[in-house]
Amino acid sequence: xxxxxxxxxxxxxxxxxxxxxxxxxxxxxxxxxxxxxxxxxxxxxxxxxxxxxxxxxxxxxxxxxxxxxxxxxxxxxxxxxxxxxxxxxxxxxxxxxxxxxxxxxxxxxxxxxxxxxxxxxxxxxxxxxxxxxxxxxxxxxxxxxxxxxxxxxxxxxxxxxxxxxxxxxxxxxxxxxxxxxxxxxxxxxxxxxxxxxxxxxxxxxxxxxxxxxxxxxxxxxxxxxxxxxxxxxxxxxxxxxxxxxxxxxxxxxxxxxxxxxxxxxxxxxxxxxxxxxxxxxxxxxxxxxxxxxxxxxxxxxxxxxxxxxxxxxxxxxxxxxxxxxxxxxxxxxxxxxxxxxxxxxxxxxxxxxxxxxxxxxxxxxxxxxxxxxxxxxxxxxxxxxxxxxxxxxxxxxxxxxxxxxxxxxxxxxxxxxxxxxxxxxxxxxxxxxxxxxxxxxxxxxxxxxxxxxxxxxxxxxxxxxxxxxxxxxxxxxxxxxxxxxxxxxxxxxxxxxxxxxxxxxxxxxxxxxxxxxxxxxxxxxxxxxxx
Length: 531
Prior knowledge:
Blueprint: E1 20-23, E2 29-33, H1 37-45, E3 53-56, E4 59-62, H2 66-77, E5 83-87, E6 98-100, E7 105-107, E8 113-114, H3 121-129, E9 133-137, E10 140-143, E11 154-158, E12 161-164, H4 174-192, H5 213-216, H6 223-229, H7 235-249, H8 258-266, E13 276-277, H9 284-294, E14 298-300, E15 302-310, E16 313-320, E17 326-331, E18 333-336, H10 340-346, H11 348-351, E19 361-372, E20 385-388, E21 396-398, E22 410-418, H12 423-432, H13 435-446, E23 457-470, H14 480-485, E24 492-494, H15 505-522
Parallel strand pairs: 2-23, 3-17, 4-5, 4-18, 5-14, 11-20, 18-24
Antiparallel strand pairs: 1-2, 6-7, 8-13, 9-10, 11-12, 15-16, 16-17, 19-22, 19-23, 20-21, 21-22
Helix pairs in contact: 2-9, 2-15, 6-8
C-alpha cells in the first residue's frame, strides 16, 4: 500500500450534548455535536453539593476512552472485577466515538487500526479475544478478511483527476521522484536502526523506543527543520509529509517535532503486512465491544470532579447527571484516564499545582455526510480514504467502503479537518461557527473534486473536537513534563494516549494496560503481563 492514512485521535461519544440542531438554507437536516459541554461547564463552575452516598470499591477508573476501557479489560481478565468506571458521556468510547443512521454506522473520531506489529502484544491479545484475529499461519496472526481494508484503499485528487496512492505522482518531476525515493531510504534506515541501548530507534508502543541521546535530539527540532537539514526541497514530498503531520498530530511541519514525524513512518513495517483493520463505525467497534465486556461496571453520565488521596487510599466524588446527586467512591487505587487538561481540573494535587501545562491539544472538525448516488470522479476508482490535494481538510473516508454491494446508491462519507495553527485561536473560532458555516466550508472543500456534491447530500452532521488530540511540539515527547506526568501520585495512577505524546489506539491501550498492571501489583494480585 502506498501513502499514509489517518491514525487515532481523541474522543467523545455519540449521544454527547448537541450544540444545537439546525437546518441549512436548502433544507439539509443535521446537527452540530460534540463532547458533553453541559457537564464540562459544570466542572469549571464547581459548586457541587455534598455527597449523598458513599460506596467502597477496590479500584475506580475515571474516563471511558480507549485507555480507561482497556485498563478495565486488563483488570477483569486478570480476575479483578471489583471496579467502577466513570465516564461523563452518555456512551463510553472516548476518541473512538461513533454514530449510525439508516445507511450505515460511521465514525466520529478514530476510524481504523493498523495491523499491529509483534511488540503491540496487548492489542493482539484483545483482537484474538474479539475474533478479529482468527488463527495463525507461519508464526503470524491471520485476520478476519471481512475487516481487512478492501482495495482500493487510498487515492488522491490532483490536477483535475484521481490517482491511486497519496504521494502526488501526477505532475511529479524526475527530481521529485528521486527525493521521494531518498526519503523512503532514510525511513528504511531508521526502521532498521538500533540505538546504543539496544532498543529499536522507533517502536510502537513508544515506551519500547531507544533512549539514545542522538535519537532523542530529534525531538528538539521541527519536522520542517529535519527536512531542511536533509536537503529535502521537493514541494511534492513536503506536501506529502505535511499531510502526515496534519493527519496524525493535527499540526504542520513547523509545529511537530521531528521525532514524532519520523515515528509516524519508521515505527511500523516490522515485517508485518501493511494492512488496516476497518469497520463502518471505525474504532467504535472496538470500544463498543470493550464496554459490553465491562457491563454494569461502566457508569455513564458520571462526571468525576474531585479525585484526592484519602488516608492510604483515594476518594472520588462524582456528579450523577441522571439524578443531579453527588456520589462518593472510596477506593484503594484510582486510574485517571482523562486527558491531562481535564486531569488538572479533577485531581486535587494537580489542581493545586500553579505551574502552567506544556500539554497542547489540536482542535478538529469532523462531518458525516449522507450522500445519494455517490459520485466517483475521473481517474482512480473510489477508495476507502480519499484525499484532496491542497484542500482545507484531509479528505473523506467512505464508511460504507467495506460493503460487498457493487451498486451502492447511498453512502456515508466522513470528512476530517485538522484545525492547524494557533490551537487556542482555532478552538475559540471553531466553537463560534454555526452548522451552516461548517457545512458550507466542508462542501466547498469537497466540491474541488466532486462539483455540485451538495445536490446529492441528504444529511449533514458535524462534530467539533476542541481538544482533538495531543500536539507533539518540539521538546514535548522526551521532555521532563510528559515523563513526570507518567508517575503516580500516591494511590492515583494515570493513563491516556497524551502521556505518549501522540494519539493512536496502540498508545492509549498501552497506557491503560500499564496502569492496570501497576494497580494489580499494588493490590497484591497475580497477573500475566500483556506488555
